[in-house]
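Page header: ASSEMBLY MODEL / two components / 641 residues total.
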Amino acid sequence: MVVVGHKDGDRLCHYLPPNPARIHSFVYLCAPGEVQKFSQSLDFLSILVNTRLPVPADELIAAALRRMSRAHEDGRNFLVAAGKELATLLSNQYDTLKSILGRLK
Amino acid sequence: MTDRLGIVTSASLDKGIEVRLDSPVAVEDMVVGRYVTIEGQKRRFFGMITDVSLGVTDPRLTITPPDVADPFIAEVLAGTSAFGTIHVLPMLTIGGDAESLLEGSQPVKTIPGHFRVVNLASEQDMEMVFGKEDKERFWVGNPLDMENKLCLNLEEFVKRSNGIFGKSGTGKTFLTRILLIGMLQKSKAVNLIFDMHNEYGWEGSSEGSTAKVKGLKQWGQSRVAIFTLDIENSKTRKVPTDFTVQIGYDEITPEDISILRSTLNITDLAVEAAYQAHRRFGKSWIRQILELSDEELEEKLKGTNIHEGSLQSLKRGLRIFERLSFVVPQAPEDAVKHILDHLDRGVSVVLEFGRYREISAYMLVANMLSRRIYAQYQDRSEKARANDTALPQPLVITIEEAHKFLNPEVAGKTIFGTIAREMRKYNVSLLVIDQRPSGIDEEVMSQMGTKITCLLDNERDIDSVLAGVSGKSELKSVLARLAPKRQALIFGHAVPMPVAFQPREYGSAQSYKDFVAAAGSATEEQAEKDIEELWG
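Prediction written out in full:
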């Protein structure tokens, strides 16, 4: 599991919390409303792009975004915005960008 | 609504400003020559797009282009990895506070900071820079690809000598006519027009059609008089004339002959002979030379060192006056006095040349009359200054084929060289119309206040028109890209920055209505002002 954000009181933060999640905490799936709210900002993408993962990052990012897009009314618009954010983050990794974009359709 | 285009990414006062376009802005909408504003921290900048280009963040994008058939990928990449940039040449700054708003726009002396927002210039910005049609400003045309009007303050315009240039057939005459009507309607200056091709007085022709367009007289019956050198021709063309100009032999001086030297094809020694003959015979010198036989002449000129060959050369040159029927041994009336009488009453004078379209006739008459009129103006201005009375009404003399008068060889000798240089001291300025600006003396060119140029394609002509203007290389490319007709570039004293524009339409019923409306509002405003002044 990769942590991409946390909630500080009522505030959603798209970066890592000061402490890791406590051990033995319960894990829940996010409700679509929460996903939609969280994905208003795309800042979390930089964490995904920069984390070393045991799975290919492009596959993971594409899958996460596809899933998030379902929580949005206009899924395509969300994907375009996310794609643009990725294009900025991966401005010198054109091949990664291309493969993620190819998987977003 | 502001039309945001993008943000400043790099800038230099010398080289211009790079602007990265926002993703929704289509590169193809960015046309060279469009005006933009940049919101600086303390002031706003007004500039012109001079180049448009495409950029990518990763060069690999150009080597293996993405699959743009997929609209999703195309949409994502547009504006992010692949983006448009424009190059903006900053021209003016518009101050942010009220005080500087009153002062109007100033030439640019600094650049905006990083990432300042760039917008398309709004209507208000354009109006602030290019002016609004009112009682002083005259609508001459529209900046290229734009709805806004380009308005000139003609009071300012006539304060200096100005030039209109362009290849033959590019619309110089139409442009000049529009400006002359503007001066008639909106400035206090009177005009004296040496109309070589009979285009300005009663009616003019329009290239490519048989339709006639209205001349000046049809705009202001009481404020324009048509003088002619060729009454027969004027009658044939059914032009109502006010006076027929005739010039007596005794009015021609050796100086007049000296500027005609190359057109009459006479030698320098022959010109020298003219001076000597003038000294010997006085005012009747031409008459004596033309009427006396060779022997008699030789007898009378004994004691001078005029060579026989020079005298013959001079005589041959002077024979031209026998062909020009407006040159008579004794003029019945003084043409200069008549012209001055009209000018004094605020009536502009158009002098038609009828069939005498040869350059020697034009140069002789234009130079001779102008010299004497200028002398009168000089005299009056000096008296007015000494007695602290009002200076004479500003006079604008319009001449065509100016390179013949103002070329380096004769510019020093003709009165026009003097007028162009001494400018406004005596309230006389020139409106020079020419197709070979490279032929005009550099010193004269440099003294011109405002220059308007239609298409020019000779390198030397372009260089001479643009000499000394900042941003010359950019303007050069604008000038070279003007359409062959009805497009012009104006720069100098009367405009805040160089503008490529399309002169307003002239010749259709609607265009005439616009002119009447403009004149109407000016007189109405004047009437209102008069009433206000009268009743306090």
